[in-house]
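Predict both folds.
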Amino acid sequence: MLTDFSTETVNNSLQRRLDRFELFDSMDSPALNLTFVLELPDFRPWCKEQGLPPFHVMLCAVLRSVLKVENFRYRILDGKVIRIERLTPSFTVKNQHDDLNFAQFEWSDDLREFVARGLAAREQASNMEALNRKYRSMTPREAKEQVFVTCIPWLNFTSIQHPTAVLAQPDIPSFAWGKFRDAGAGRLELPFSVQAHHGFVDGYHIHQFAEQVATELTAIMQA
């Protein structure tokens, strides 16, 4: 059982969670999975005006939110809890044979550059027949500086089970979202799923994250 919270990158709020962490980390699977209806400002008309794809704008808002909600920044590495300072964006795509592949690119704070890099990564991955294993070149620390993202835009799903490489260590959060639908009054709704280590993340933090995604989209449109 991992109990080393001594690293300087871990703040006092996480120190207070040590007993919660030990409780959930001792379980066969400490994963918290929650699927819910995410309500957002309808940013699609703005994307159309700006010539930007809604998925990549949404991806940017989601990843910015990961960095702004503290509890989503914690990981486990070599028996210690660490706090990540950056993210390497990645997401799933389908290739020419409708098989899944992975796209990965370098972060940019500039929205248009972020989108351009994401589109280039999508093009590269979608034209590959073999599974893109670019992530294998990452160091163990770099591998922790990511989250797993997938979009299922054809389905209004109500639940999802995210795969986990090590059942007892789901410390890298997973996110999935589905089909957009109009909610009226300039709003939209979509199914959204979060998986995270319950030692770090509670339902309240997922609520904070959902609120932050909406805030990020509003800020993007007002910039």
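Second protein follows, with its predicted structure tokens after the sequence.
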Amino acid sequence: MHRKFGIDTSTYDVIKGWRANASYFYIAKEFVRDNVDTDILEELLSLGGLGIQYCIKSELAYSKLTENKEGLIRVEYSVFNDKYNQRDVRARENMHDLIESDANKVTNVFSTLF
């Protein structure tokens, strides 16, 4: 499968990448439907500042994790949730605007990659 999609990660201990949410599934669907040009794909995926996630794949990697209690910050759910929702709405608006913009030439699309 890695020949079709890129990198063989079977020997990796940790994989670092964009954190996924429902917006990414929308982008993926639009991309495989040939509605998104590859030239704007990375920008679409980075909208909203969702941050980075780490996938811990091995026992070795898991055994190296430590807790940083000094780095913990207590936040009120209502404050955090409101800020998250506002950021999510802005990101979705920006995503739709970019897909509908002239930057999305829809010439270098999913079906042209094969």
